[in-house]
Design a protein that fits this description.
This protein has helices at about 15-30, 50-65, 85-95, 100, 105-115, 120-135, 150-165, 210-215, 235-250, 250-260, 265-290, 295-320, and strands spanning about 1-5, 35-40, 75-80, 140, 175. α2 (about 50-65) links the parallel β2 and β3. The chain folds into 2 domains: about 1-180 and about 290-320, 3-Layer(aba) Sandwich (Rossmann fold), CATH 3.40.50.620; about 205-285, Tyrosyl-Transfer RNA Synthetase (Orthogonal Bundle), CATH 1.10.240. Strands 1-2-3 form a 3-stranded parallel β-sheet. Strands 4-5 form a two-stranded parallel ribbon. About 55% of the residues lie in helices and about 5% in strands. Bound molecules: adenosine-5'-triphosphate (ATP) and L-tryptophanamide. Adenosine-5'-triphosphate (ATP) binds near residues 16, 20 and 195.
């Protein structure tokens, strides 16, 4: 099966991104043909500094590899280097009703946040994402919960295109984890952990042990004393239990049993230790890769060439079907 997914280069990759998306990628690459993208064109839809973009993209390439994406097994590349993404996005613009875009949850939230300078890119964002996915005749898109709606729209766009112009695109399936698809903020367990929030609200994949301990010990938890999984009544503790479980490969029940007669402080201390240990190999690998920029850039160039071959084949067909030859 062909798998496609991506992360935006802005901000730091956090354990929400890792547990919701990247951890699935690492597992999927063993048995599938995987294409993983750094979606820099998507990142232009919100205010950003052009001088910092280059480093942010390189940092994400390093993060992918440090977190376990193997460039021998998977294609890793930068979205803007494969021009077919922008080209197909324009063509798909012409088959997508505006009403489908204005009802997207992420658009509605961002439209509120950027009321003063709302650009058309924010509205059209899911079309570019559909182009990313459909260019590669993707079977499966592993993402976090917040991106499910966008993948569903990509399916709708593909179906509509196929009906209008003839069978062209594969209809992709979304793959969202049962547990961990929505890791919550450490500061506010009612909100998802997000790169664009304050650093205390997330744990970066590369935070130093001291920072991890501090963030976990001061994370917002619920009233009461018991360590019990109950997302609606105890969202803070439930979120921490989810993180603990996914990073230790222990079931939530096992962890609850372990802390049956213990308090929040003991639980948090043990969680901090678990997180520090689980992220240690990533920190080590990242340090090594930071001094090998040429190697990382070569992986990106190779990835770009491999991605282009697939993208160009799809585009030839699309152009022909749309009468553009
Ligand atoms: P922002 O919230 O600032 O828009 P982000 O943290 O959501 O950024 P993205 O690059 O948009 O980061 O997301 C990359 C991948 O991580 C997507 O598949 C997304 O669904 C997933 N993801 C993001 N946040 C979480 C989270 N809190 N829990 C689980 N998965 C997440
Ligand atoms: N919009 C996604 C990133 C993204 C993506 C994709 C994910 C862009 N193109 C294609 C899966 C498939 C986000 O996480 N914000």
């Amino acid at each position: 099966m062909r798998v496609f997914s991506g992360v935006q280069p802005t901000g730091t990759i956090h354990i929400g991104n890792y547990l919701g998306a990247i951890k699935q990628w690492v597992e999927l690459q063993e048995k599938n043909e995987c294409v993983f993208c750094i979606v820099d064109l998507h990142a232009l839809t919100v205010p950003y500094d052009p001088l910092k973009m280059r480093d942010l993209v390189l940092e994400k390439a390093i993060a992918y590899i440090a977190a376990g994406i193997d460039p021998e097994k998977s294609i890793i590349f930068i979205q803007s280097q494969v021009k077919e993404h922008a080209e197909l996005a324009w063509l798909l613009n012409c088959v997508t009703p505006v009403g489908d875009l204005t009802r997207m949850t992420q658009y509605k939230e961002k439209a509120k946040k950027f009321k003063q300078n709302l650009n058309a890119g924010l509205l059209n964002y899911p079309i570019l994402m559909a182009a990313d996915i459909l260019l590669y005749q993707t079977d499966m898109v592993p993402v976090g919960e917040d991106q499910k709606q966008h993948v569903e729209l990509a399916r709708t766009i593909a179906r509509k295109f196929n009906q209008r112009f003839g069978e062209t695109f594969k209809i992709p399936e979304v793959k969202v984890r049962k547990i961990g698809a929505k890791i919550m903020s450490l500061r506010n367990p009612a909100k998802k952990m997000s790169k664009s929030d304050e650093p205390e609200s997330y744990i970066s994949l590369f935070d130093e042990p001291e920072e991890i301990k501090k963030k976990i010990m001061s994370s917002v938890t619920d009233t009461g004393k018991t360590i019990k999984y109950n997302p609606s009544k105890k969202p803070g503790i439930s979120n921490l239990l989810t993180i603990y479980s996914l990073l230790s490969d222990k079931s939530i029940e096992e962890i609850e049993a372990k802390f049956k007669n213990k308090g929040y402080a003991d639980f948090k201390k043990s969680l901090a230790e678990t997180v520090v240990n689980a992220l240690e190999p990533f920190r080590r690998k990242r340090k090594e890769l930071l001094s090998r920029e040429v190697y990382v850039r070569e992986i990106m160039s190779q990835g770009c060439r491999r991605a282009q071959v697939i993208a160009q084949t799809t585009m030839q067909d699309v152009r022909k079907k749309m009468g553009l030859i």
